[in-house]
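User: I'm new to structure prediction. If I give you an amino acid sequence, what do you actually give back? Let's try with this one:
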Amino acid sequence: MAENDMSERVDRVEQKVDALSVSVDAVSASVAALSASVDARFEQVDRRFEQVDKRFEDIDRRFDEVRDHFVEQREHIEFAYGRLERRIAGSELKLTEAVSRVEDKLDRLIDAQSQSRPRTSRRRPTKRRR
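Assistant: Good question. You get back a string of structure tokens that encode the predicted 3D arrangement of the chain. For your 130 residues, that looks like this:
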């Protein structure tokens, strides 16, 4: 009886170990499937990060183009402003010279007029009383 009892116990333990082995194999297969799924997700995430990196590179390139455009505009404005300053300075000089010539001519004209006619005082005509 004791041997029978012991044999039954060993059989039950063997059955439990076999069931446990099948259960461990199933869990192992499930873990392997989950591992493959996680790996696939990580690959998707990596691809998306690569896409995001490309977009940021495009954005950086566009910002560089805009910055370069502003630099170019500033250089052009500085060049045009310099030309305008030179033209204004030249015009001011010409205008000053022209005004000076007009003043000289006016002075000569006034001097000539004052020397040719004696200066008379103007009086207001008085009203005659009757």
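You can read the tokens as a compact description of the fold. Here is one thing that stands out. Helices lie at 2-116.
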